[in-house]
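Model the whole thing, not chain by chain.
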Amino acid sequence: MSINRRQFLRRAGIVTALGLSGSVAVTGLRGKIVEAAAEAGYKTSSQALNAKHWAMVVDMSKFKTEDDFKKVAQSCVSIHNIPDFGNPKDEIKWIWEDDYEHTFSGGDNEYLTDSFKELPFVVMCNHCENPPCVKACPTGATFKKPDGIVDMDYHRCIGCRFCMGACPFGARSFNYRDPRPFIKKIDPDFPTRTPGVVEKCTFCVERLAKGQMPACVEASNGGLIFGDLDDPNSEVRKIVSTKYTIRRKTELGTQPSVYYLVGGGDHA
Amino acid sequence: MYKGGKIITSLIIFVAFLTFPFFYNMGKANAGPDNLVANTKITANLQCVESTEYMKANHMQLLNQWRQAYVRDGQTEYTNSQGKTFDVNLNTCIECHATGATSHAVGLSNPAVKNVGVSNSSVNTSDQFCVSCHNYASVEPTCWSCHSGPGEATK
Amino acid sequence: MLEKALTGSKKYWAWIIFLLLVIAVGFMAYLRQFSYGLGLTGMSRDVSWGLYIAQFTFLVGVAASAVMLVTPYYLHDFKKFGKMVIFGEFLAVSAVIMCILFIFVDVGQPMRILNVLLYPQLHSVMFYDMCVLCGYLAINIVVGWTSLGAERKGIPTPKWVKPLIYLSVPWAFSIHTVTAFLYAGLPGRHFWLTAIMAARFLASAFAAGPSLLIILLLIVRKVSDFDPDPPGVGAIQSLVKIIRYAMIANVFFYICEVFTAFYSNVPDEMAAFKYVFVGLDGHTSLVPFMWTATFLAFLGIGLLVFPTRKNKVLLPIALLSIFFANWIDKGVVLIIAGFVPNSFGRVTEYFPTSNEISIVLGVYAIGFLLLTVLYKVAISVREEKAQ
């Protein structure tokens, strides 16, 4: 055989291409779905809660002590299978609390009253109107829904953590290790997550779909008010348009949807 | 052939590597899906989401469509070709396709952690519905690394 | 031509085997990380990008620096660079492959990485980064291999290579600009939120990349019969001019950043600079790195500005200083300091783990292996032609 390398590679390439296309031609393109389900359809549940712009108001007058906050956090942790790794490095948290100085930009004011300095501000994903995390995500694993919620698709996330860099609020956590051994009690009605994906608060989309309020809202005993900011009759709209509320880092233009009710009437 | 000895030897070694999986698993393959009815928790609601024929050919595509609909489009109800409505949820499947005793159990960890005490880790010894066919077809879907499935399927 | 990499001296094979060992160790370390998760690294909820992404950022710059040879030679007929261009292109190939590998080892679900192409998001800078990097890799492989092959046969390069070469010039600028945009567009990270991030990236790339290239060429001169800069041509000194001004520009840009941060006295602007130069809230782990980089930068510039640059001993020292100053700045400090302080104004420090460092070294070894093989091919072709 006096065939040189280039001829050999060329012939091998042609045979491979013929073989591949031949097998496709013979067996037909796979993935043709049997059209039995032609009339099948998908729809949202009639019980689902709908909105144009879900928002939350944190009524600071109702959060005075650690305990006010603990039951709120616990409700989220238990139904969402959030693990407790016991160290801040791998920590995963969807809703937690921090003080005024650290939660808000320009929050350092040495003459602030001590009681205000120690108030536990409940923080979570702000479900911004212009979310920088959604802009950053290269696969669309985090995406903004028409109802305003910034949702997570754990199936598509590649774990690049660009969204974590983009979020100005530190709302996102990454699964640096397998969470399952660290979940106190797995709730079988909600998936856990695998190592290698980013997660965060999703305003309980799964509960809203069934007509229920987010778990933290229910557990907060009036401390967290949830509703459609676009609806002029909703409680959140009424509060935001009549009382004094603040949001985190508004100078960045992300338009957060979580408002903190700190002023007006008998508040804070 | 120029350097024929080396080439032939390397080719033999290469073919040996290529066919290694076949020889390693020879005699270990299971008999195929059986006891499917016994491994299903028969309830009053005997009907599956779609016909058996359809599900045999398309259950993966249907699950993908369900996933897209629920997670990304927010649609939680599926109306099948007969007009019956189901909840778009893995639980809808697990209600029936779970061996009687344990309908729901705490799942085990990521499949990256190999089974302990099983000589051939790709053979799942569970008797759960999904497993009997998946073993035979050598398919390892990763659903249970996140979703809580019926007890043994997650091993 | 690849068979030329299969023959070599004992030293050559010793080097190859050493690299393979480092790769093997890195690979085992990666398997551990793959099964446990990225928790085996020093990254945390607050510092979510670490050494891997930092090396990626630095190496994109090294890859882009090939343009500093291509532009004068092809666009301005600067024939002095003629013998060096192929080495620049091969360095670019090796650097881009290392970039891709660093992304691969950093990502939490590497098996899903094709999702970036399956579900493209046109608003995401990372999507464009993947596209331009892969494109640049393809261009350099094709251009380098084809022109070397033509040279070996003694025929002129095929005509279709020219447009690709012209394309590689703006493309090189784009890969590093897009990488800079990854950081410069994030509203919450004040250390990165600066308009001159891309300019800084390019200036430091055009200083660090060619510095590494000259060091490699000096090694090529030593270990082979081929001289990429024969006496009298002065190619290396010309490239040194480029490095000198690029590094001066880089340091100037940095001084501009420091001025804006501290003269404006805005806390968010100053915080990260304080962290790297003097420490923040008692956390000082990056301070020694930053001052070493500063010292090396000025040392390098000084040695290149004064006639000492012609000195056979001082030139490599100057180039290594510039290379490591830039490596520390981009490959150690920039990424980590971007996360300090975190979104709540607190400092979380980052310390890479030994497993993480093994993987980093393994990827570098893969890059050096590729570089060695490609350079060996180029050198062997030229040595052959010279006979």
